[in-house]
Structures are given as structure tokens and as C-alpha cells.
Design a protein that fits this description.
This protein has 312 residues and is mainly α. It is 79% helix and 0% strand. α2 packs antiparallel against α12 and α7 packs across α8. The relative contact order is 0.20. The N terminus and C terminus are likely disordered.
């Protein structure tokens, strides 16, 4: 067990511990809107800047504690890996920024829609870029997802750009990270380090014009927490992935958008219209079809316990 995993609460049975880690990770992601609502008075670009800077700092501390500098240096020396991580950095940067914008502007419901769509987008990207073959149920699920988006566009008369940007940016991010062999913790650290120069310049300019002087100590403290808030769910997710089947993780992933959906409707009072009801119904139908098909496929083969994420 790695140092990152041992630092978290333990449970007796590996599968039980994996479920607890997975639920903790996805629940944290589902509750993200609460944190970003708390810092919504800060310009979204500055929230992103702080998230990058404090995440890099927190991850560097973890890497130091775990003694993994040699692993980091070896990864950085691999030009092909670094080039792939440049692409994933662009994708995760876009994803983070759009999510922050969505929360700040009362579009959490659209954000949750994006993450509900994401698994089906990932299936589509697998077909396009990895030449994966879809089963009939998977094809039907993808068709339902795009029918849902088309219905929403027709009913409200505008493109749900937040949902689509989040779904496709995270879909492409997952695709790149699937193709590159790098531990999740090391990969995220390199991604934040690639963003760090730009974030540092933007923070320097904000400091120069007195932006942070007007925020107050409590808000600056909240912004500093973004590093821990970003990194901890990743630690929990990676710990879960080492203990659970991919199919189990696939079901747990719906916790996050469900949490965002519930927060949007019941805590923040975002309007849930008949158009939204029709769209989400089609998406949920597609996800149920996709999940049932995955269960049936799992019975026909033995699935390894997430080999891509076997270590942080």
C-alpha cells in the first residue's frame, strides 16, 4: 500500500475499503459546488489560478513525503509522456474553468448534465479514436444521450455549452490519460506544474493591482484550501481503483453528478423545467441501459481490478 492510501481511514476487507474510498471520492466531487459557491465572489479566473497554485504545492508535499522524486524526474524525461500531458493539461484546465464559471453563474444543473453525459461520451470517443466496437445496447445508450441534448436545444433554443464542454473536455482528458502510462498522482502534479507559470503570472498581476488585499483573510484561506480539495478526492479515487473492479467504479461515478443535480435543484433553487425533465429522463434511461449491458458483459468475462490505476 502506498503512503497516500495509508494516510486515509482503513477498513478490514479490501473490497469494502475500496467502496468507501470510491464513495468518498465521488461524494466529494458531488459536493464541489458548495465550495465553489463559497468563493463565487472571486473572479473565476482567480479561483482557477489559486486552484492550480495550491494544488501544485499540496501535491509537491505529498510527493516529497512519499519519496517519489525519482519517479517524477523519470516521467518528465519522457518526451512522449510530457507531450501527452500537455494535451491533458489543456483539457483539464478547460474543464476546471468551465465548472467554476458554471457554479458562479448558477448553471450547476447543466454541469451535472455534463457529467451524466460523460460516460456515454467516453464510449463514443473509444469508438472514434481507439476503434472499439459497441454492442447494440451501447449504441442505443449513446443515441439516447444525443437525443436528450437535441431535445434540450429544441426546447430552450440554445446550445447547452456548459454540459457539452464539461462532458467532452473530461472525455478527451480521460482518453489521453488512458493512452499515457503515468501514475495519477504524478500525472496531476505535472499537469498543475505545466499550468503553474501562467497561474503565477496572473496571480502576480492580481496582487499588483490589489485584488487580494480586498478579499480578506477568510476568503484567501478558502482559496488556499483548493489544493487539498482538488488532490484528496484523487487520492481516494486511486485507492478505490486498486481495490475494485472497473464495473463497480462505473456505478459509483454517478454519485458525483447526482450530488450536483440535487444541490442545484434543492439547495440553490435552479429552475428544473419540463425541458430539463425530458432531457434528464433520456440521459438516465441511456445510463441504465449502458449499466445493465455492462453488468451482463461482466458476467461473460473476468475483469481485472483497474490495471491502469493500480498505483498513485
Amino acid at each position: 500500500m502506498s503512503a497516500g492510501a495509508s494516510a486515509l481511514p482503513r477498513a478490514g476487507h479490501p473490497a469494502r475499503a475500496g467502496v468507501l474510498y470510491g464513495m468518498a471520492a465521488y461524494a466529494a466531487w458531488g459536493l464541489f459546488p458548495i465550495y465553489f459557491k463559497l468563493v463565487a465572489t472571486v473572479a473565476p479566473i482567480q479561483v482557477l489560478v489559486n486552484r492550480v497554485i495550491w494544488s501544485a504545492g499540496f501535491l509537491l508535499i505529498i510527493i516529497s513525503v512519499q519519496g517519489r522524486w525519482s519517479e517524477l524526474r523519470a516521467t518528465i524525461k519522457n518526451r512522449r509522456t510530457v507531450l501527452a500531458l500537455v494535451v491533458s493539461t489543456l483539457m483539464i484546465g478547460v474543464n476546471w474553468f468551465v465548472f467554476i464559471l458554471a457554479v458562479a453563474h448558477g448553471e450547476i444543473l447543466q454541469a451535472s448534465l455534463g457529467y451524466f453525459i460523460n460516460p456515454l461520451v467516453a464510449v463514443l470517443l473509444g469508438v472514434i479514436f481507439l476503434r472499439e466496437r459497441l454492442r447494440r445496447a451501447q449504441i442505443a445508450a449513446v443515441i439516447l444521450a444525443f437525443t436528450a441534448v437535441a431535445a434540450l436545444i429544441w426546447r430552450i433554443g440554445e446550445l447547452p455549452w456548459v454540459a457539452l464542454t464539461l462532458a467532452f473536455s473530461f472525455g478527451f482528458y480521460g482518453l489521453v490519460r488512458k493512452l499515457v502510462v503515468v501514475a495519477p498522482m504524478i500525472g496531476l502534479l505535472i499537469e498543475t506544474l505545466l499550468l503553474l507559470p501562467f497561474a503565477s503570472i496572473l496571480m502576480g498581476r492580481a496582487v499588483a493591482v490589489g485584488v487580494y488585499g480586498s478579499l480578506g483573510t477568510p476568503m484567501i484561506g478558502l482559496l488556499a484550501l483548493s489544493g487539498i480539495i482538488t488532490a484528496l478526492p484523487l487520492l481516494w479515487f486511486a485507492s478505490a481503483a486498486r481495490r475494485l473492479r472497473l464495473a463497480t467504479l462505473g456505478f459509483l461515478q454517478y454519485i458525483a453528478p447526482t450530488g450536483q443535480f440535487l444541490l442545484a435543484v434543492f439547495l440553490y433553487g435552479e429552475p428544473f423545467t419540463s425541458a430539463h425533465a425530458a432531457t434528464f429522463s433520456l440521459i438516465w434511461a441511456g445510463l441504465i441501459l449502458y449499466s445493465v449491458d455492462s453488468l451482463l458483459a461482466l458476467r461473460r468475462r473476468v475483469e481485472p481490478a483497474a490495471p491502469v490505476l493500480r498505483d498513485l
